[in-house]
Backbone:
């Protein structure tokens, strides 16, 4: 260990000792508010940017379906569906090791490494020529993206009180709709690129891969690992930041896996309730890969379909924003609001399946309703921390 590392370690130890000595000190509300705003100015732009990039990357497969990937890589309907499935299977399989890694390694650096790997995998999509090659890059993409939501929830619990977390989780969930809008514009743009040997879907993969790479670099240098090492806080402010979140009773970082806490969690009915809700709500989330194809099947051209995706993004932004603000104004309402906001999903699915196929406007309205369940999922994410 070099002198700089020793100095950094001693500094962190001193801060923790100072915190222990002043653990019962009364916080000045004005100072605590100032520290929270300072944290917001750094964390929120970074977290919102990455969540935007993550959803943008997730949506590339669906957008590519109307940009030529099916023909170029000789995919049939079953193979295309499997590309979406293997992504989520990989996401699920690697969720547990990703959580262990987030506990063991610096959060910011681990997230940055995952973003870098998936940016390379995303660019490699453009070089794929068949189903098997696409399966490999989709597995890598799912493996890496499994770190993001877990990492964000961990960081949120370290920097924000439980009451503050609900709004912040809502803010970065707004990026889902924002990414849908961006995907629509990018898809519309690449459809107008005329180059020999390079198709629109390949341009989409390269553009989103480059954006992911830039985000990886930003996270490596700017994203804090914990309040005790946050580069934008002074030593005194770090102590205040830790004292602010004492009410969470979760600490700000622990590198050891504790079996007793694991057993306590799996015996808690709420844990299984959260897991069940997440599993059910993500069934509709998987439709995102099919959404452009479904919209196009209503009789719209590919150019129209790419632009109609923008409307879905705007609707999602509005519903998440209203849901977050209602929950902020009505105490203990997150579960109820989440239940209400998932009802449009059910209505939308019924509309798409029951309405006459010639009534494409009504079918499109049902398709838009399918995306409103994201609001409910965001509410649950903010509860379980």
Residues:
């Amino acid at each position: 260990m070099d002198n700089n590392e020793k100095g950094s370690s001693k500094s962190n130890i001193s801060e923790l000792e100072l915190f222990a000595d002043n653990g019962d000190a009364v916080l000045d509300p004005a100072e605590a508010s100032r520290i929270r705003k300072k944290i917001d100015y750094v964390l929120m732009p970074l977290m919102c940017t990455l969540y935007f990039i993550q959803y943008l990357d997730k949506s590339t497969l669906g957008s590519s379906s109307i940009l030529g990937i099916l023909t170029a890589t000789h995919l049939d309907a079953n193979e295309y569906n499997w590309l979406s499935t293997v992504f989520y299977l990989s996401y699920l399989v690697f969720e547990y090791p990703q959580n262990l890694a987030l506990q063991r390694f610096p959060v910011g650096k681990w997230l940055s490494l995952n973003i870098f790997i998936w940016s390379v995998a995303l660019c490699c999509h453009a070089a794929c020529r068949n189903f098997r090659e696409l399966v490999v890059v989709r597995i890598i993409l799912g493996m890496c993206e499994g770190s993001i939501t877990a990492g964000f929830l961990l960081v949120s619990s370290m920097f924000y009180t439980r009451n503050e977390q609900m709004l912040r989780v809502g803010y970065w969930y707004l990026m889902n709709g924002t990414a849908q809008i961006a995907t629509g514009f990018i898809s519309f743009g690449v459809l107008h690129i005329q180059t020999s040997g390079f198709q629109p879907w390949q341009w989409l993969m390269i553009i989103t891969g480059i954006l992911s790479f830039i985000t990886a670099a930003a996270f490596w240098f700017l994203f804090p690992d914990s309040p005790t090492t946050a580069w934008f806080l002074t030593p005194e402010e770090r102590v205040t930041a830790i004292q602010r979140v004492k009410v969470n009773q979760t600490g700000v970082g622990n590198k050891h896996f504790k079996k007793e806490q694991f057993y306590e969690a799996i015996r808690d009915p709420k844990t299984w309730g959260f897991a069940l809700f997440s599993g059910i709500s993500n069934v509709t989330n998987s439709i995102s890969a099919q959404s452009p194809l479904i919209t196009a099947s209503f009789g719209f051209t590919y150019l129209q379909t790419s632009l109609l995706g923008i409307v879905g993004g705007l609707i999602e932004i509005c519903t998440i924003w209203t849901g977050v603000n209602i929950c902020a104004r009505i105490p203990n309402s997150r579960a109820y609001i989440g239940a209400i906001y998932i009802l449009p999903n059910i209505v939308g699915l019924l509309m798409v399946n029951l309405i006459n196929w010639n009534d494409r406007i009504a079918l499109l309205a049902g398709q838009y309703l399918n995306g409103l369940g994201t609001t409910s999922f965001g509410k649950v994410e903010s509860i379980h921390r």
